[in-house]
Structure formats: structure tokens, C-alpha cells
Amino acid sequence: MADTIIAKQLRTEVTEDGSLRLSLAEQELSPPTGDGIVVEIAATPINPSDLGLLLGPVDPADARQEGDALVFPIPPQRMGALAARTGQSMPVGNEGAGVVVQAGPEAQALLGKTVALAGGSMYATHRAARAREAMVLPDGVSAEQGASATVNPMTALGMVEVMRAEGHKALVHTAAASNLGQMLNRICLADGVPLVNIVRSAEQVRLLKDQGAAHVLDSTAEGFGRALVEALAATGATLAFDAVGGGPLAGRILGAMEQAASAGQAFSRYGSTAHKQVYIYGRLDLRPTELAANAGFAWSVSGFLLTPFLAADPARAQRMRERVMAELTTTFASGYTETIGLTDALRPEVLQRYARRATGEKFLIDPRR
Amino acid sequence: MADTIIAKQLRTEVTEDGSLRLSLAEQELSPPTGDGIVVEIAATPINPSDLGLLLGPVDPADARQEGDALVFPIPPQRMGALAARTGQSMPVGNEGAGVVVQAGPEAQALLGKTVALAGGSMYATHRAARAREAMVLPDGVSAEQGASATVNPMTALGMVEVMRAEGHKALVHTAAASNLGQMLNRICLADGVPLVNIVRSAEQVRLLKDQGAAHVLDSTAEGFGRALVEALAATGATLAFDAVGGGPLAGRILGAMEQAASAGQAFSRYGSTAHKQVYIYGRLDLRPTELAANAGFAWSVSGFLLTPFLAADPARAQRMRERVMAELTTTFASGYTETIGLTDALRPEVLQRYARRATGEKFLIDPRR
């Protein structure tokens, strides 16, 4: 019989008195039964979606040490929106990978295997799971290489699946120099899908061009609007995935799609008949989304979330997962700029760096450190 | 053989030199052949959707008489968006009704009948059409009563159809004291559909309450936000049709739907799983639509246009049309505050009144005057 493991787990809590508190909690993991397993987490990435839960609306610069915990004041006007999580100590970490160190009688085959997991609570030394939730990494693929096997790969692949399912023939992507964006660029190059990449600096333009991208536009450059209409006309893209969310960008894309779709068409006061869709899948900019009245009437702006998309078609999700596993070190490779330990995540100067969400920077946690 | 009719037709033209020009043009209507008919228009309403084409972006106060025409300066920065209609003299008027005064050999049965038409070019003394396009009004229904048989009735009925087709169980409507809004209220009362009406004054609240509406909220009143969440929770409405379009209203509705959907649910950083949909079908407010980041990820904001909706399911459209004809003087009755002649429409002081788009005011043109 295996021993009970005392795992260390990173927790975030909004307290009644208006603070956000980060701490390391101990969690007892009983020896697994049935098809249960315990994975010693070796690598778990810090994704923007993790930061949303971890830090909520606080300013990273306001961190105050309180014993082993880190405490931040919450702006009083934000407490209403946090009512549902107030008073709950919540684990964090959407995905990760590590070695199976304990396994129930039905999961013995997994013992010693390196597996990837998703589903939360990964910022921990150990995590319990069921055998069917574990994706065994191919031989020679490390935990670090498998740590980001779900959020970015399945989202990027999901974009192409949505494009096909909804009858579009090309894609627009914003914040396109991100890990996810580079991945999407590789998928589109491999599958022959025209992709219009929108980034925020000349350096990011070069980065994607160097990776073979045909259309890379800098939204901060002069002439961006005209260049966007041209790229949309050239590709016929009527579908965009936007990680920025706030501000005028989503609306500018819609307006440019409308301009590209109307060019050479007879005037209609209701705009073009081409349906234009923007999915907002991230909120790098927390300001309101602004949609100018220049896109006609055949358009939608929608939120996009991976989990319900995958749940809507399990066979499709399985097919996507198999491709990710097969191309984990090529198409779906993730790069990290820094690896930190679990306790480092609670050091104010480290936190301020990983909380910046800077494109091109990506942190990995190795809880064994 | 019938005589050629010289019809007078209201035209709008964006000229190369940056003006918008309204005028009356003469149009020769040859005697109809086959199933052709000519209708002497007796009643044609001025809908907000007509004003969009008629006046484009001009300020009604800038009208300048030029012979029989009325000319307005166009702000130079708006000319780009008008490129596709520049230099074209365009007829106006989405719908109307009148008596069939000429008919081809296959349409003789329609001669003398009062019919309703839709499809443009109604601001005219006469309009040519095909027999199959004409909806013969029931006995005892006048041209005035049949003039608005398409735009408002089919749009209002379409909202309830969309609700059922997309699996929602209640509706939200803005600018709800409009002719269309009162119509929707009557449909919802008749069909037992819970409806949350949003209006902009206490007077409009009284108007709809007097017509039996259960939920009428004044968006300018204190406590509107809280009242909206309560009404959404009470009705379970996750679908809204918004005629305002610009400003924060569409986003406030989404945010309130999310609050109502999340109440009593476990916290999820991604928001509730209930899909929330706002359709923007009008643009009473031409500012950008502002969507705050408080609606989770299960939402869409989309344009809504009647014509493609009807075209998508001809059998449904036919069923809707039959109901409208049967209830034209009850559920689908339109009220007009003023009737003007075709030449009156070109008088600056009259134009400034009908161009106000004030809720509760509605103009009818009788081209026989």
C-alpha cells in the first residue's frame, strides 16, 4: 500500500475584508484506488487564463508579504463581481505534466509514465487524477515539452476547426506573436489555411515573418487600417479570433472585413451579405469592446471558450488530441522564457514579471524545485 | 391597352461634390405584361430604416432648397463610407399599400384590389410589381391599415420565431415603446411569451403598462441596473433585440443577463454556461456599441436583418405573413401621428420633424395628396 502524500498546492482566495491572498496549502492525497493515479507535477505553465483566476483584478505592484502568504488589496468597486468566489480558497493551474508516482489497481500500467493533464489544480507538487484523464506523452517527450498540451494547442487547433465548421476560408488572429499565435501560424502553414496575423510591434512582425507567415500586420503602424483591408481582401477572411477583447480592435477588424466584402459590390444600405464573425477568446485588454457602426448587419461578436467547444463534439475533440500528441514537439511546441519554483510564484518581484502577460514571455513552474 | 403612366418618385443621391440631394423624379411605367401590375400608392410609412437611405449621414437642419430639390452638405470624412452609392439616384420607401390600377393578362384578378407591397421604391405615386409580390389586403382593410404590413410586423414576429428557434424562453426589447415595440408586446401577450421592455421615459413606461406589459423598465431611472437583473431572473430571458445599437445599453443587458444567470451558481472564472444573445436590429444611436468585460464567455452580439432571416426559411416566412394578414388591424396595427404628401417630404420644416425618429411619432406618406 502506497503512503499518503502531503502535496503542496498554490491557492488564491478573495477574503471577506477585501483582499486577495496567495498561499501554499497542504493537501493530503490518499493512496489511489480503482483507476486513480497521483502525478508528481514537473512542469506547469502560467497562461493568461491562469492569471485571471490567480490574481483577479488586483495590481501586482500592491503585493504585501504576510507570513508565507502574499496579500493584495482589491478595489472596493470590484468586490461585487467577485462575490461568487469570496471566502473560497481556490487551487490554480489549468494544465501540466509529470510522472505517475502512485496508481490504483486498474491504473498500474501508468506507473512511472510521464503524462499530461488538464482540468485545474496543477500548481502543486502532486495532483490526483483518473487514468482516463491522463494523456501519456510519446516516448522521448519530456514533462516540460508536454506541460502545455491542452490550452494553447487545442485552442489553436479549435480555431481552424471552427473555421471549417462555419464555412469560412481564412482566419484573422490578434496578439498573434504569442505562443498560441506561433502555434496557429504553424498549423495554418501545414494545412494551407490563409492567416492574417495582427501584432503590436515591428519586432513581432519580424518574428512571425521569420516563421513563414505571409500576412503580418502591426496595429500600431501607420496605414494599418488600409493594410488590413488589403490582407482581408487577399485572403477572404471573414472569421477572427481575438485575444485582446477590449478597445476598438475587434470592431476595426469587423469594419475592415465589411470594407473588403463590399469592394466592387453594388451599394446596399444594410451592408454586405457576407457573414463576419469575431470570437473574443481572451481579455488582454480589460476595457469595454467597442464596435463602430460600420460593419453592416451580417456580423457577430461572441465569446469563445475551449471547454464547451470540445464538449460539443467528443469525436472531434479526440481527433484534435491525437494530432496534438503526435506533433507535440513540432507544430505544438511551446517555448518558455523562464522556469520558476512553486514558492518563487509567491515572491513579489517574480510575480510582477510573470503577471505582465508580455507577448513572447512565458513562465513555467517546476514544483519540484 | 392601358396608357403609360408617368410616376413621380422620391429620389436620394450622394453627389460627387459631397452633397446629398433629395428630389422628385419622373419615371415612365409601361403598361404591364404577363403577371405585372401597377399600384397607385396610397400609403407608405417613414420607418427608421427608410431614413438611413434617404438621409444617410446628413444633418436635417442643414437642408438648402435648390429649385425643387433639397440639398445637404455631407461631412467630408463620411464620403468614404458612401462611395458605393455616390452618383446613383436611388428610390426610397421599403413598404406601402395602394390600389392595383393596371394589370397584365395574367394578373387581371388583382385589378381594383387594395394590396400591400414591400421591396423598395414606395415613395412614389405609382409602383410596378409582379402579382406574386402583392399581398391582397383582407376585405375592409384600408391602404393606410396595410401600409406597414411587412417591416414592423415581420420583424416583431421574427423576434419570437428566433427565440423559439434558438431555444430561449423569454425576450428583452429596447426602444420598446415604438410602433414595433407595442406590436411585439401584443404578440407576446397573445402567445404567452415573457417580455422585458426597456424604454427611455416614465411616460413610455405608462404607455406599455397600460397595454398590459408586465415588465417595463426605464433605462434613465435610478436603480435600472438592479431592476433589469430582477426582471431577467424572473423571466429567464437570455435573448434581446436592441434597436439602439450604440452606447453601453447592449453591453449592460448582457452583463445583467450574466448576473441573473450566475446568481446562486458556483463560481466559475469563465462565467455562466447560459448562452446570452443580443441582436442589434437598429441604430437609433450611431455611437460605437460598448461591451464591458462582465458577461463571461457564453455570449454573442450580432446584427439582425429581416430579409436574410425570411429568405432562410420560406415556409416559415409564409406562415408569418399569413398571421400578419389575418391580424392586420389588431395585433399588427400601426398608428401614425401625421400624414404628409410626397412633396411635403421635401419641405425642410416637415423633414426636420419626421427625421427626428422620436419614439411614439410615426409619419405616413400619401402620394396622392
The largest inter-chain interface, given as chain pair and residues per side, is: A-B, 45 and 46 residues
- Please state the oligomeric state of the protein chains shown: homodimer
Question: What sequence of helices (H) and strands (E) makes up the elements of chain A?
Answer: EEEHEEEEEEEHHEHEHEHEEHEEEHHEHE
Note the total helix count of chain A: 10
Task: Provide the CATH architecture of the largest domain in chain A.
Answer: Alpha-Beta Complex
Low-confidence stretches of chain A at least 5 residues in length (pLDDT < 50)? none
Largest sheet of chain A: 7 strands, mixed
Protein name (chains A, B): NADH oxidase
Organism (chains A, B): Sphingomonas aracearum
InterPro entries (chains A, B): ER, GroES-like_sf, NAD(P)-bd_dom_sf
Keywords (chains A, B): NADP, Oxidoreductase
Keywords:
Rossmann fold; Quinone Oxidoreductase, Chain A, domain 1; 369 residues; 7-stranded mixed beta sheet; 2 domains; alpha/beta; homodimer; 6-stranded parallel beta sheet
